[in-house]
Amino acid sequence: MSKNLTWFSNQLISWYLQNKRHLPWREMDDPYTIWLSEIILQQTRVAQGLPYFEKFTTHFPTVFDLANASEGEVLKLWQGLGYYSRARNLHFTAKQVAYELDGIFPEDHKGLLKLKGVGDYTASAIASICYQEPTAVVDGNVYRVLSRIFGIQTPINSTQGISEFKKLAQSLIDTSQPGTFNQAIMEFGARFCVPQNPNCNDCIFNIKCVAFHENRVSQLPVKLKKAKVKKEYFNYLVCVSKDEETLLEQRTGKGIWRNLFQFPLIESNKKWNEKSLTNSQEFRAFSEKVNIQSVSIFNDKEIIHKLSHKHLFTTFWILETEDLSNEAIAFSEIHSFPVPVLIENFISNFEPFKK
């Protein structure tokens, strides 16, 4: 690190040592638990991720335990965290480390990048915390801190911005304690240099912060606008038989929620009423396989489930039947299947499925 930039790491680490939260993964330098915590905390707040970290370390205390689990077990434990590709990659990498690397994680940034689901940020975190390799982490918190203090207007989601911020973070890292530095800058961004209304008057960097002095704190970091969020309309067919059974199907393909379970789904290009549903070709094909006696709507107002790239306008339709096929699932078993949180919320609120 350049001598004229040592003020940054010195002040940052001093603040961290006095103010850091005592989190379980900070009490250890085992690459398995650090990797687990970093994957869980991607795009997830600590308060939300902590219970999942505790569940995973309890169920899978070693990488071998995680590798030997079924994908269904992993997805069920992950349920509610979203971005389910993280869970599938987590399971894939556990098997890779356990079966191909004898349970030993790569010991440098370059080697860690070869693991599925491990990008520059996660590799930098593990390498610095576990192996003291001076490679800087750059996540949303780091972008925010650096853009404000140094007054950088380059969009953080541009190729130029990604390169520029990585180089700056690398020039600032304390090479004698890189793991502590990386955790400090993430903690500072998460707890002090927050997105909205940070307490700049009490900030340890306010004397040097460009954004503070130029009154641009709310304008940084800069981010290129994303494409318009798409609207999609989901109609879930919830079968309810007199034998207290229902139907679930497993999602396939490369779309959202791959390998999770859901009720039979019909997608539409707008909100449907009962007539629109029952007159659709998809519903008619479904009714040829299931002897439907009545159709009723569960939620008159659509449930809007927001994803990063699309909003799902969802209606659950209750289909009463005499009996179902051999593939039917008992109401009592429905809670054992890994499902998207959208489905889980419905199951929790629909009286016949309540435990």
Q: What does the secondary structure layout of this molecule look like, with pairings?
A:
Elements: H1 6-19, H2 31-41, H3 46-59, H4 63-68, H5 71-78, H6 85-100, H7 109-112, H8 120-131, H9 140-150, H10 159-172, H11 178-191, H12 210-213, E1 230-241, E2 245-246, E3 249-250, E4 261-262, E5 265-268, H13 274-279, H14 281-289, E6 292-297, E7 303-306, E8 310-321, E9 329-330, H15 341-349
Helix pairs in contact: 1-11, 2-3, 2-8, 8-11, 9-11
> Ends: how far apart?
58 Å
Q: Which structural category fits the helices and strands?
A: alpha+beta
* CATH top-level class of the largest domain: Mainly Alpha
Task: Enumerate the spans where pLDDT stays under 50 for 5 or more consecutive residues.
Answer: none
- Average of pLDDT: 92
Spell out the CATH superfamily of the largest domain.
Hypothetical protein, domain 2
User: How many domains make up the coordinates?
Assistant: 2
Strand content: 5-15%
Q: How many strands, which pairing sense, and closed or not: the largest β-sheet?
A: 5 strands, mixed
Percent of residues in helical segments? 40-55%
- Taken in chain order, the helices and strands follow as HHHHHHHHHHHHEEEEEHHEEEEH
Oligomer: single chain
CATH architecture classification name of the largest domain: Orthogonal Bundle
The tally of helices reads 15
Give the C-alpha Rg. Answer: 24 Å
CATH fold topology of the largest domain: Endonuclease III, domain 1
Query: How many strand elements?
Result: 9
Q: Characterize the overall form.
A: elongated
